[in-house]
Each structure stands twice: as structure tokens, then as C-alpha cells.
Amino acid sequence: MAFNRLPSGSRILVTGEFHSSCNCIILLTLCSLPGATGLAGSAITDLLLQRGFRVRGVGRSAAKAAPFADHLNTKYGAGAFEFAEVADYTISGAFDSVLQGVTGVVHVATEASFDVLSDVDTALVVSTAAVLGLMKAAAGIESVKSFVLTSSSVTVMATAIEYGKDVQLSTETWQDHAIALAQSLPSDIPAKGFMGYVASKIVGEREAWKFWNEEKPGYAFNSVLPDMILGPVLNPVKGTYTTHSWMNDVFLGNRDALSVAFMNPPEWMVDSRDTAIIHVAALLSTEMNGQRLWAAAHPHTLNQHLALWRKAFPDRNILPDFDFPAPPKIDLTDLDKSTKLLKEFAGKDWYTFEETSLANVAHAL
User: Fold this and answer.
1) Phi, psi of 330 (to 5 degrees)
2) What's the pTM?
3) Domains and CATH numbers, the chain
């Protein structure tokens, strides 16, 4: 498989807000929950720069982007990373100027605030307006040849995982019924915000595929579905990085950490670095087009992490095991497509469970 769809050294657009508290890439977030896509976004940016591309980040505040920009331009050379400020992603023509000279787009798209996502109808409108606005703008730029959308495993798994029920899932599976479920939940239900997130991901990606299939723009289009992202944070500024930070809360002894609820029942996990590889490989592959791609490496449970940490850090006071039922078996029937892409692009397999878990908690030592 060849990975030369885009000219070496050309400029890639990565949409998002580079927030000073986490130096991550966030699209359309009010930063009530900073870092909703920071693990993926910062890793994607770093890998593109490693590969010799220039990256143009897009967000609402140049001031908030400054620490990350300074770090990257010190690491990769002046001018490797630049930032373009867009105040409102939903305005018609918002992306026209920032797409000039760009050959590829990675749309790391999410709303990070569960408070905002609890207003499900508004979240759906905003999510759709952002992705379609960028796709339409990119369709009018002749230099854009490849577009990758960050979706989520929740579009496939959201309500499918239950204790005592083994399942087979593929990227052809959609949890469309979760949209109505999110809209019907009372506003005081804690799960309302998460289900709003699920609904926004489903609707946003559905609309993206509809546009690409009907309008047939001149660029390749693929989406990536990461499951729980763990592993290292690829920037130097401390902050909250959702699943990474939630897992470290457990490592530090918090039995009420968000990851406890997030992994009950458990699903799969993926390293932040492998998540970046799948995005960049999909962006550059001359063969990959019109595909939904998993970013998922291993099934895992909290108790597996706890056992590993006890072995690796015998002098630390690690929490006792959680009394959860046996995890369901989740078979991702078309994961081999992503595994093949990863191996051909990076020359390696997925990071192991142990490598990713220990890299995650290294930030908490």
C-alpha cells in the first residue's frame, strides 16, 4: 500500500482549539471539559510534523494556542506549525481562507462540554454545521485531496455493550436509535450529556457521509472510530485529557473517577500514538477511500490495569479490585482492516496493553 497521496512537505489543516490548559486540539468546545480530543489531536499533529508535513491548526483563540505552537516550532523548526484563528465554525465561509494552500484536512471534531451536550438538539445542529461547513469549503479548494474525520466507537457501541451478552460488531453497525434516546432522556439524568455526545457523533458522521456520497467532492474521505484512548500525552503542558486523566485518577486512588463509570461495562482501548497512525495513514494512503476505520487495539478491564500497576509499582498503594461482573466478549469483526493499515504504514503492531497502560500512568508519577 502506498502512502503518497499528498506531496511531501505540503500543508495539512487540523481543525480545533488549542487550549492553553491542555495544549490539545478541540473543535467546537466551550472548554467546560478541556481536552475532549486532546490525546488524539495532539498526537496526530505531532505525527504529521514527524513525517515532514507542515500543519495549520485552526481554533478560536491564537493566545490559547501559543504554548503548543511554541513547543512544536521549537521541536520541528520554525514555521512547521502555524495557527489560524476562526471565531465561529458555523458561519458560512468560515474556513475558506484557512484552507488556501492545504492538501489534506483532519477534522478532530467534538463538543467537549457535557453541559452543552445535554441540550441535544442544539448539539446536533452545531456538530452538523461544523463538519458540513468544512467539507463544503474543502470541496471548493482544488489542492485538498484527502479528508479524515475523527468519529468515535460510540457510533457503533453506544448501547450495544451489556454484561452477560457477547456481541459481534463492525464498522457497518450504527446506533441510530441512540439519537432518539438522547433526546428523550430527562435533563437531570447524569447520562444525558454522554448520550448527547453519542447522538452528535452519529449525526455528524452520517451527514458527512451523505455529503461525500451525494456531492462527490474531489478528495478522498475516510472516518476513524477510536475507542477509549490511553497512553502518553504528546505535549508538555499539564492539563485534563479526559480518558487519559480519568485513568490516572484511578491510579492515584480515586474509586469515583470518571473512568470507573466509563468502563462499566468495559470496551476496547487504543494508544494515543496508534490513534494518530490510523488517522495519518488514512490521510496519506492512495488506496484507502470511503472507509470507516477502527482505532481499537485491545479489550481491557479496570482490574487488569490495577493488576499491572501492582506488579510494576509494588511500593505504591494501588486500589483493590472492583467487584464487576465478567466482561462481555466484544468481537470487532473488521478490525483487521485497521491492523493491516497500521502495520503497512508504521511497520509495527498495536502498542501492547502493558505499554499503553504504563505510558498513561507515567504522567502521574
Assistant:
1) -115, 110
2) 0.91
3) 11-364 (3.40.50.720)
